[in-house]
Amino acid sequence: MKTLEVKELRKSFGHTLVLDGINFSLDQGRALAIIGSSGSGKTTLLRCLNFLEQPDEGSIYVEGQKIFDAKDRDKLSEADIREKRLNFGLVFQSFHLFPQYTVMKNVTLARELLQKEAGKVKGVQKLAGNIEEEAKELIAQMGLTGKENAYPHQLSGGQQQRVAIARALALKPKILCFDEPTSALDPELTGEVLRVVRGLVEKKTTMIIVTHEIAFARDVADHVIFMDEGVIVEEGSPGEVISNPQKERTKQFLTRFSNGT
Amino acid sequence: MFSSLDWYKQMSDFNTIVFRLSDSFLLNIQLFGLTLLFSLPLGLLIAFCSMSKIKPLALLSKTFVWVIRGTPLMLQVIIIFFAPGLLNWGPLWGSGASARFTAATVAFIINYACYFSEIYRGGIQGVPKGQTEAAQVLGMTRPQIFFKVTLLQVIKRILPAMSNEVITLVKDTSLARIISIKEIIMMAQEYTAKGLIWPLFSTGIYFLVFVGVLTVLFNALEKKLDYFKV
């Protein structure tokens, strides 16, 4: 059974077709990298998975269960959406930590709120384990021990992004999505975030990583998708797509990258 | 009844004047306090209406804000005080001095709620969309997002504008004299009419001191929220 299956996803904003029939699947414990130029629809795809956008057509399956079908999208209540989006975690390009909370609270807040509702609200289940202890472990795993009581503005961009990763992991999503996690960082800070992501790959976290770090994608991903103008142009292992692309558009894209533009 | 000279003798006594001015300033403070108490939450409600996805509601709310902000507060006080009588609604505000005070308070509440609503709206819309999205993705509900994520950031953002508006309100309370509410300036003008000008001038001290206290409070509040950046 596939952890994630996406079928025939289409999404337009006004007259602009942003996703034009996206199909792919992802196995448990695998890391999928999505590459492509800006405006190719990568981010929209992640936003659709996380219910920040609703696709116009297509369906999404998690562990064999249909969690979204565009045909029924008007019937989805806010509570349904909330329950279903918890299958996914999302790490944003520009972190979006909650500025008024400490690192610790940023990590624990959502789970504490869910905990309070567990059993009372339909679809909300209590996660096993101690919230504080697990948060501390996550923070340690991100290499941020000692920063528990710091506020986001006291941290570097790289540290903030690692807190954001811990925050997403705290809810134990089945699939963790990264939306260009290093694009907002100074070059010297990308390394520490990529190291953490690499660590997650080694722990067999199921992940989708939208990235411009082609070398990184080649190193850590099990599978690579190259997107352009809302369609998947080419997909396969990193060796196939990145090292030995078949399609002209993929070649052009990768050439531009290796030229440093 | 006493002659003008008797009046002068009795009333020009310094202590009496200070007492009467202070007493009437309590009316200003009351009007100020009641206005704040009700217009702060009402303003939030109006802000939500103005931002509503239900277009007619948003339009209605925005039009209301335009009318209230577009006409003088003094005129609104007069209209709200006299309208119930003119429209044969009966003595909606009761009678006598308390009726005038109630009417003025209602006018002030509506007027300030509209100004506050625009400050709130700016503050709420100024919180980056990413904050809401991050909270949504973490499974928070709309009320949770508002109260746990957005609200404190909004408060921090709007504090300078709010302190401005609140300070304006202190001084605006003297407009209530247009419907014969004996607030401090009206009280002082009784002396001016009799040829004594210093009581009127001295009312400035009352406003200054009160605004001074508020300024200290607002600075303290801003400092308290200094621990994070938005």
Describe what you observe in this structure.
The complex is a heterodimer of chains A (261) and B (230). Chain A is an alpha/beta fold and 261 residues long. Chain A has one domain (4-258): Rossmann fold (3-Layer(aba) Sandwich), CATH 3.40.50.300. Chain A has helices at residues 42-49, 78-85, 103-117, 131-141, 157-169, 187-202, 214-220, 238-243, 248-258, and strands at 4-13, 16-26, 31-35, 57-62, 65-69, 88-91, 175-179, 207-210, 223-228, 231-236. Chain A has a six-stranded mixed sheet, with helices on both faces. In chain A, strands 2-1-4-5 form a four-stranded antiparallel sheet, with helices on one face. Chain A is globular. Chain B has 230 residues and is mostly helical. In chain B, helix 2 packs across helix 8 (184-193) and helix 8 (184-193) packs antiparallel against helix 9. Chain B has one domain: MetI-like fold (Orthogonal Bundle), CATH 1.10.3720.10. Chain B is built from nine helices and no strands. Chain B has helices at 4-11, 14-50, 55-70, 73-86, 96-126, 129-137, 142-172, 184-193, 198-224. The radius of gyration of chain B is 22 Å and the shape is flat. The N and C termini of chain B lie far apart (65 Å).
Structural key phrases:
heterodimer, A: 261 residues, alpha/beta, Rossmann fold, six-stranded mixed sheet, 9 helices, 10 strands, globular, B: 230 residues, mainly alpha, MetI-like fold, flat
Gross geometry of chain B: flat
Amino-to-carboxy terminus distance of chain A: 40 Å
Largest sheet entry of chain B = none
Structural class from helices and strands of chain B?
A: mainly alpha
What's the overall average pLDDT of chain A, rounded? 92
Give the number of DSSP strands of chain A.
Answer: 10
According to CATH, the fold-level topology of chain A is Rossmann fold
Q: What is the ordering of alpha helices and beta strands of chain B? A: HHHHHHHHH
Integer average pLDDT of chain B: 94
**Uncertain stretches of 5 or more adjacent residues of chain A:** none
Number of helices of chain A: 9
- Assembly type of the chains comes to heterodimer
